[in-house]
Amino acid sequence: MHLLWDCLKPYKLSVAALLLFLVIQSACEILLPTLVADLINQGIQTANAHFIKTTGMRMLLAAIAALLCSLASGLISARISTRISADLRQQIFFKVQEFSSSEMNLFGVSSLITRTTNDITRIQTFLLYLLKMGILTPLMMLSGIIMAVFTSGRLSLVLIVTLPVMSLVIAWILVSMIGYYRSMQAQFDSLNLVLRENLTGIRVIRAFQQTCHEMARFEGVNEEYTRLSTHTQRLVGGLMPAVTILMNITTVAVMFFGGRLVMNAAMDVGSLVAYVQYITQILLSVMMTSMLFMMYPRLITSLTRIVTVLETSPGIVDGSRTEAGIHTGIVEFKQVYFTFPQAEEAVLKNVTFTAYPNQMTAIIGGTGSGKSTIAGLLLRFYDVTAGQILIDGVDVRDYTLHHLRESIGYVPQKAVLFSNTIAGNLRFGKKNASREELLKAAGIAQAAEFIEAKEAGLDTPIAQGGANMSGGQKQRLAIARAVIKKPAVYLLDDSFSALDYKTDLAVRQALKAETKDATLIVIAQRISTIIHADRIVVLNEGQVADVGHHGELMERCGIYQEIVRSQFQQEGLR
Ligand SMILES: Nc1ncnc2c1ncn2[C@@H]1O[C@H](COP(=O)(O)OP(=O)(O)OP(=O)(O)O)[C@@H](O)[C@H]1O
């Protein structure tokens, strides 16, 4: 709950104004039964028309004042709750930007989306209710009890029985609901996950005729969510009738005992009518408060989910060398070991190699041998478990993440584009790049031709996830995005796989000229892509099997020979 108080702090003034309006509203509303009592006792029973008129006017003014205060407090509470939910959404979004791949894997994308949307909306709804009813109902209850006791101490004995019974019933139902709400939230994440996977992988699902299987999978999680919802709704459904029946019993008891007091002339009729209104106000306040408590278990679940994200410390922290940039770009892996969080076996073992500027260093190896992991470690998506990665003699952990990543032109294995124009996507590499610079980078990546063929050229919109581009076009745009940075180190992770041989060659030749002074690290599956590399690191099950150029490796590295043999006729390549 301290998160909510922290969030409320910046809105102190608004909360103070809200409090003022709610105090006035409750005072006006509690005044009305007193005026009714006066109207009956001194106006109707004595047939005093003037008194009836003036009291009626006072009642009207009190009702209008209560209404205006209610409107004002409604507006203020809506403003505060929407602002706070926007603040929370922003905090979560900013926090997730700091997360390393470990934290991303820990929470999962679906859960982070649900937390940023669903959970925060729930907090907003609770806050809206809390700021209005959470303040108003205790005020109404307290003033109602004072007025009831003041009007008739004897009749108020009824409340001594009713209020504790009502509170116990409400507490029992609410405690039963907490466990269900927690399970419901977790199940909602699963529902979201299945839905996301289905929507993003719909083509594969259809191509592999898995629609029925996926429908059954969705039905399973949906059914479980429905089962949990039904249980909670049953409890919610039981709460209101329980409270209503207790309210009705109390009113009947008050009328019964109050009627006898009136008959014995121990109480006047006006006071009994006012008393019934006070009792109704008290019990309505209890009911409203119970609604707040009903929302509370869900709020606690959502708050816990938000706080867990906000309190998670990012595993990757900035280095201290704020002044240092990377200029030369010598990349050294020194006895690097790496084990993924929660994994038992190391993915990389004793990996040692150096990549120099003005040279192309290639990394090749079987699938799953750890090539992309090497790229992830260099960019500090993860940190090494043991050993060191140095750039220009400095441990990558000592650079600020900004300096480090600014100096590396990364092309990921799966080209990711954003819903923007082609120019907007390329400017990810350099924010203020001119159109000439964009076209030059596109030219190097062999993308200029297809960009210019499009009617809007660089301003062609890219659909969500790059859906309106082919695999090869996406890869070329991703290469252009890295080229435009002019980084000290180029890191290309299997970035030519979707290109035909001719384009692959053209991109490599253009890149060679462009990256003359830079360190070029190319991860590849195809021998033809890396055959002319200055140095080839052969990776086998997370270990460096050998390092050398193609000729050397063909003579002494069995694993390399095996890879070559599987792709080409050995003789033809020598
Ligand atoms: N987030 C992760 N958590 C646990 N293990 C992982 C994770 N990512 C990858 N791995 C494992 O690490 C190993 C190396 O993966 P990596 O992606 O580096 O291989 P790769 O050589 O790039 O493979 P490919 O050529 O198929 O892309 C694999 O066995 C993979 O299962």
UniProtKB/TrEMBL annotation:
Keywords: ATP-binding, Cell membrane, Membrane, Nucleotide-binding, Transmembrane, Transmembrane helix, Transport. Its main location: membrane. This is ATP-binding cassette, subfamily B. PROSITE patterns: ABC_TM1F (PS50929), ABC_TRANSPORTER_1 (PS00211), ABC_TRANSPORTER_2 (PS50893). CDD domains: ABC_6TM_Tm287_like (cd18548). It is found in: Cell membrane. It is a multi-pass membrane protein.
